[in-house]
Amino acid sequence: RLRVLSGIQPTAGSFHLGNYLGAVRQWVALQETHDAFYMVVDLHAITIPKDPAELRDNSRMAAAQLLAAGLDPERCTVFLQSHVPEHTQLSWVVECLTGFGEAARMTQFKDKSAKQGTDQTTVGLFTYPALMVADILVYQAHQVPVGEDQRQHLELTRNIAERFNSRYGDTFPVPDPYILKETAKIYDLQDPTVKMSKSASTPKGIIELLDEPKTTAKKIKSAVTDTDTVIRFDADKKPGVSNLLTIYATLTGTGITELEEKYAGKGYGALKTDLAEIVTDWVTPFRSRTQEYLADPAALDTILIKGAEKARTLASETLKTVYDKVGFVPGP
Ligand code: TYM
Q: In which residues does the motif 'KMSKS' region occur (predicted)?
């Protein structure tokens, strides 16, 4: 079995539809066919200041949402990044293999640090991609299911894997990004030229998975489209309508062409009304499953601790091999 690894940040409130369609949906599918490791990246979360109590709540909330979305602890390994110290231990080795300029070219770092200014930007934000490389390599993952915005970090991961292998001998598979073209980038409902994102979008532009279903329906009905009236997929000329069609097609398993035929001669209103129903039908049970997991935090923590134990077994083997190859004297 090939191995997959991926991670998601614990955010305040809930995941958004971009997270689900771009990443988590694939995680659920891949647990059937792959040796799968999925984590909540709480270590990555503190690269931006976080209130401790909120971080703890958000991490549990994130884990509950992953389980509610369909991750099954019997079929995959679900855990919190901070429970597996090998990530940060391997990260140091990765940092020592990463060029300063190479790290400085990461566009997510450039965007976030430009917004914050250098005094607010932490060294952790700068080394964030090195930790992500370590996350992937410590499991010797073959594939990494993510959205388009993570592609550059995965290119870095591939380069570091190759660099390590050529310097110290074959150790890591060079991991492939697993990015589905159709859902690689879900767009903001109010500005369909930018990705749906908690940090960039207005609340009206993001479908938060734990929103009241009524709010969700309202957001879809007020999505920005265009002055044309034809329901047709054209990402360049009709980004708003195309985004709605993508969401519709993915959640229902219908082809885009089929949808174009179904809505021929109908207005945007009809498309939005139907899509609002489809999305609320999906989020309603998702919300109640999330609440069920959160209602029993002890059981949730047990799932996460078991996951971390499984993850550590593999991660500590990799770390041992790496430390040996790098030339550290065997320790206690
Ligand atoms: P994060 O938490 O920002 O996002 C989680 C996943 O959601 C995807 N995504 C989207 N996909 C499509 N359309 C969108 N609008 C959209 N917005 C977000 C992201 O691409 C991601 O797959 N650095 C990572 C977390 C991470 C990680 C890792 C991922 C840490 N270590 C190791 C893979 C492997 C991040 O911040 O994702």
A: 195-199
